[in-house]
Amino acid sequence: MKFTLLKIENFLAITEAEFRLHDRGLVLIQGVNKADTSADSNGAGKSSLPDALCWVLYGITARDASGDEVINDRAGKGTKVSVDVEDDEDIYRVIRHRKHPKGKNALHLLHLQKDGTINDLTQGTDKLTQAKVNTIIGASHDVFKSSIYAAQEQMPDLPKMTDKMLKMLIEEASGVTVLEESYKLARDKLTTERGTRDAIAQQIEKLTEKKDWHERNKTSLQDQIDGWEENRSESVTSGTAELKQHVEDVKALDEEIAAAGHAVLAAAVKECDDKILAVSEEQKQLMQLNQKVAQATSTVNLTRMEAKQTQDAHARQKGKIAAIDHRVGCPCDECGREITEAEIEASRVSAMGVLKTLVDNFTTQKNALEDARKALTLITDKRDAFEATMTDISAVSALRAAKQRELDAVNEVIVKRRNLAQKAKDLAEAIKTLKAQENPHRLGITKIDRELLTISAEICKASEQLRLAEGTVDIAETVVKVFSPSGVRAHILDEVTPYLNQQTAKYLSIMSDSNIEATWTTLVKNAKGELRENFAIEVANEKGGKSFRLLSGGEKRKVRISAALALQDLVATRARKPIELFIGDEIDDALDAAGLERLTQILEEKATERGSVFIISHNSLRDWVSQIITIQKEVGGETTLIEETV
Ligand SMILES: Nc1ncnc2c1ncn2[C@@H]1O[C@H](COP(=O)(O)OP(=O)(O)OP(=O)(O)O)[C@@H](O)[C@H]1O
Ligand SMILES: [Mg+2]
Q1: Which residues line ligand 1 (CB under 6 A)?
Q2: pLDDT tens track for 333-364
Q3: Percent of the chain with pLDDT over 70
Q4: How far is the CA of 552 from the centre of ligand 1 (A)?
Q5: Ligand nearest to the CA of 31
Q6: Residue 482 in 3-state DSSP?
Q7: Mind listing the GO biological process terms from this record (predicted)?
Q8: Residue nearest atom 20 of ligand 1, based on CA coordinates
Q9: Are residues 645 and 627 in contact, defined by beta-carbon separation less than 8 angstroms?
Q10: Which residues lie near ion ligand 2 (Cβ < 5 Å)?
Q11: What is the 67 CA–ligand 2 centroid distance (Å)?
């Protein structure tokens, strides 16, 4: 990854500047301050140049200037810094504004397409855009300040850093942080894949349960089918035996009926009936005679009763006449004088008349009774005479009754035979129907078989999916392991440590003639032999102080420079987002001439290997450096940039 073009407008001391950052080799930044008579180069704006890069990328300078502080005093507004960043094939432009007439205070991120079109990647807020910028650069402000830009008075002090800070810097500088994100993504992916696999396994479990349930149903249904068939077979066998028995019984009854001579008996009864029918005329006549006898008897009784009534009336009339006769000589009820015979004569005559009539009637009735009695005797005799001449059918009736009983018995057998024959017929029909009947449970089995076929296919399909999902989970687990602290991360740190040591040793050996040694540790083995992270830089000095604390100022600076340059090498050589840029602002401070020469040698070498190294120094380095950028502050405060190759 390269920072290519840096453009500055109204930033700190600089009114306007533009220069290339990439593939420059070793460049010396110098300053001329015409605005301040007390200074030659101090305050010219040298440090403002790399600070502009720092600010455009992170919104803060190495000396922690931010907000309106960064606006050039002379302009008072319109601050704008942009830098182009090339990441493989992609070119981005980061633009930061402060009180800018167009850009206001905004941070913009553009993606410059090869065809000239611009894709604006600016997000809804500066915070979000900044996050995107950080992702593109792949280095935080801390890493930037510790390995890329060793700012004035901000020389990265790696040997004195805490384990935590050093860990952060080394991990980020080596690109392990990216793995952290990958580790998180891998774990997320593993969770998802496990979820998918478990869901499929659960689905298979459910399907298997369903299958088992259907199979159990099928077994019980099969039992029902078998049971039904057994029942049918038993019913057919027992029915057939029963039928056979019926047929035999019918045959036996046929024989019984034949032996009983039904026809002969029926003929005998008929014969008796004929005979009885023949005497029925006589019975009719007898009945008529009996009726006449009854009539005659009734006439006699009626006549006798009338005569008796007349006799009674005669007696009562005689009493009445005696009562009339008795009234003679008795006082009258009305006048009291005695009643004479003459006075009762009329009544007596009348009563006597009635009496006579009664006598006449009685005589007539008596005669009539006599005639009725004669007629009764006559008809009774006639009836008795006829009855005596009547045919005697009692024997025939008795015979008929006997024959009829026998016939009834036979008929009973016939009915029994008929019923039995019907029963046999019904039974034969039932056996036929039962034999032809479809087993009612078979349909259920067909249905279950169909269902089982579908479920088996589903299980088969899901099992294949499970196999694939398990494969995916295995891969995801492997990926998690690879990105886990014990995986590739440890491996990288394992590789990084010797590299840092080798680079630091290289720089220190030049700077100190191998007297001072600085050793980086990232991973240490604990008592159990397990790797444990432990970030530190151990310093040893053969000829002097035995720890970093006891080193001289110049020696400390040599260690600091060596460690920072080694870290820069790490950033420049990492697999993703390598940054081939180093800016050192007065890092040569406190070095003597010998130290300075050695440093310049290192920086030159570094510039050859790593693209661009910018160095700001008050020391006269023109003998060692061929490219010079001079920032010149004019009397009025405006700045100009002069680039020269010597
Ligand atoms: N907002 C600002 N506007 C204009 N000038 C500013 C602003 N902030 C700081 N300055 C001044 O800009 C000048 C340049 O600072 P800078 O740090 O770039 O100088 P320098 O060339 O690195 O000097 P030195 O050699 O002393 O480190 C200084 O005089 C400083 O006071
Ligand atoms: Mg400075």
Answers
A1: 12-13, 31, 41-48, 71-73, 152
A2: 888 889 999 989 999 999 999 999 999 999 99
A3: 100
A4: 30
A5: 1
A6: helix
A7: double-strand break repair
A8: 43
A9: yes
A10: 46-47, 152
A11: 20
Select from 3.40.50.2300, 3.40.50.300, 3.30.420.40, 3.20.20.60 the CATH code of 1-24+43-138+581-592+604-623.
Answer: 3.40.50.300
Q: Which CATH class is domain 228-467?
A: mainly alpha
Cα gap 364→357, rounded to integer Å: 11
The rounded distance, in Å, linking the Cα atoms of 405 and 388 is 31
In a 3-state reduction of DSSP, which class is residue 472? helix
Dig out the tokens for 331 from the structure.
Answer: 């006082």
Q: CATH 3.40.50.300 spans which residues of the chain? A: 1-24+43-138+581-592+604-623
Biggest alpha carbon–alpha carbon distance for the chain? 218
Contact 350, 401 (CB under 8 A): no
Instruction: Output the CA–CA distances (angstroms, integers) from residue 559 to 234, 505, 535, in the order listed.
Output: 107, 10, 17
Closest-CA residue, ligand 1 atom 13, reads 43
Look at ligand 1, atom 27, and give the residue with the nearest C-alpha: 42
Residue type, 168: M
Q: How far apart are CA 465 and CA 276, in angstroms?
A: 104
AA identity, residue 313? A
pTM for the full model? 0.61
Pocket test of ligand 1: the residue of 14, 48, 617 to mutate, having most ligand atoms within 8 Å of its CB, is 48
pLDDT at 483: 84
pLDDT, one tens digit per residue, over 289-325 is: 999 999 999 999 999 999 999 999 999 999 999 999 9
585 alpha carbon – ligand 2 mean position (Å): 7
Pick from 510, 520, 534: which is nearest to 606 by CA?
Answer: 510
How confident is the model over 166-177, as pLDDT tens digits? Answer: 888 888 888 777
Report strand pairing: 612-616 vs 581-585: parallel
DSSP state string for 373-390 = HHHHHHHHHHHHHHHHHS
